[in-house]
From TrEMBL:
Domain HTH gntR-type, chain residue ranges per copy: 7-74
Keywords, alphabetical: DNA-binding, Transcription, Transcription regulation
UniProt-listed SMART domains: HTH_GNTR (SM00345)
Gene3D superfamilies linked: GntR ligand-binding domain-like, Winged helix-like DNA-binding domain superfamily/Winged helix DNA-binding domain
Organism encoding this protein: Pseudomonas frederiksbergensis
Protein name as catalogued: GntR family transcriptional regulator
Keyword flag Transcription: yes
Coiled-coil segments on the chain, per record: none
Keyword DNA-binding: yes
Molecular functions per Gene Ontology: DNA binding; DNA-binding transcription factor activity
Length: 219
């Protein structure tokens, strides 16, 4: 594989490795060796080292003294902790949209995502469905206008993607339920109903968490 755009090379390498971790090609506990990655991708060792630091910040690997980089374990405690935090971050984003949308056109990106979610449901394309689920939060960033919130969510999103990927098949049966939750969320945002936004997003996070937990391997 050959990468371009040297100014974003580390990010590209990090994205490539993240995708392998999310898909399960790189297993929990598996070591990621800088030299092997350097040779396999034909990139500099410095860029790989920087990419590994990015992945550590995104909670996909741990870098330990004298042991190097290893893929993090996905445990029930980590899943529950992540879902609890992401729930509150989603609520912050939802409240920002509810507080700051002014005209119907402001909601157009969310309606387009709703249409894509419905199309993914009709095709039973669970991967596209999950990807568009994350598109919702990115559409909310301009309303929040909070770089710290955005950075936090972006750094946690790969870990959530990894958890969701594990539960893809379990989520397939729940797609219609998530569509209904999203419809309720849009209605609450349009009504500027902050308590209802919390109810809907808390239910979404809890249901997602339950599905991931049910997909974890039995210890």
């Amino acid at each position: 594989m050959t990468f371009k755009a040297p100014d974003s090379l580390a990010e590209q390498i990090a994205h490539h490795l993240a995708e392998r971790i999310i898909r399960g090609d790189l297993k929990p506990g598996e070591r990621i060796q800088e030299q092997k990655v350097t040779l396999a991708l034909n990139v500099s060792r410095g860029s790989v080292r920087e990419a590994l630091l990015i992945l550590e910040r995104r909670h996909l690997i741990a870098i330990l003294p004298r042991r190097g980089a290893h893929v993090t374990e996905l445990t029930a405690h980590k899943v529950q902790s992540l879902c609890t935090l992401m729930s509150e971050l989603y609520i912050l984003l939802g409240n920002s949209v509810a507080d700051r949308w002014q005209v119907q056109a402001d909601m157009a990106p969310f309606l387009q995502i709703q249409q894509r979610l419905s199309a993914s449901y009709e095709r039973q394309d669970i991967r596209a469905f999950v990807e568009d689920s994350f598109s919702v939060m990115r559409a909310a960033y301009p309303f929040a206008n909070n770089p710290y919130l955005q950075e936090t969510v972006e750094n946690l999103q790969p870990a959530m993607s990894r958890a969701y990927f594990l539960a893809l098949e379990q989520r397939k049966a729940e797609m219609s339920e998530f569509l209904e939750l999203f419809e309720r969320l849009l209605a609450a945002v349009l009504a500027r109903d902050l308590p209802q936004i919390r109810v809907v997003l808390s239910a979404y996070a809890q249901r997602s968490c339950d599905l991931v937990l049910s997909a974890l391997p039995v210890a």
